Amino acid sequence: MYFYPNNDDTLYRQNDKLIRSIEKAINEEYSAIHCYAD
Questions:
Q1: Is 4 in contact with 12 (CB distance < 8 Å)?
Q2: Helix, strand or coil, per DSSP, at residue 10
Q3: Would you give the distance in Å from CA 15 to the centre of its chain?
Q4: Burial class (CB in 10 A: 0-12, 13-18, 19+), 26
Q5: What's the gap between Cα 22 and its chain centre?
Q6: Is the dihedral of CA 20, 10, 4, 1 positive or negative?
Q7: How many angstroms separate the Cα of 17 from the Cα of each of 2, 8, 21, 37?
Q8: Over residues 1-30, mean pLDDT
Q9: Which residues have a Cβ under 8 Å from the Cβ of 12 and sit 6 or more positions away?
Q10: Do 25 and 32 contact (CB within 8 A), yes or no?
Q11: pLDDT at 22 over 80
Q12: How buried is 10 (Cβ within 10 angstroms: 0-12 exposed, 13-18 middle, 19+ buried)?
């Protein structure tokens, strides 16, 4: 098991949250485009 220093762990969590919200936004936009296309 590999343990990150606390600071890196916090940074990783923030990046993970950011990536998730970007993915969510892209998915919503993609869905909206498909609704308009239909």
A1: yes
A2: helix
A3: 8
A4: exposed
A5: 5
A6: negative
A7: 21, 14, 6, 30
A8: 82
A9: 4
A10: no
A11: yes
A12: exposed
**Structure tokens, 24:** 């969510």
Which residue type, as a one-letter code, is found at position 8?
A: D
| d(C-alpha 22, C-alpha 28), whole Å | 10
Q: Which of 3, 10, 20 is nearest to 28 (CA)?
A: 20
Structure tokens at 31: 């869905």
The one-letter amino acid at 38: D
Rounded to whole angstroms, the Cα distance separating 5 from 7 reads 6
Between 12 and 6, where is the model more confident?
12
Global pTM?
Answer: 0.54
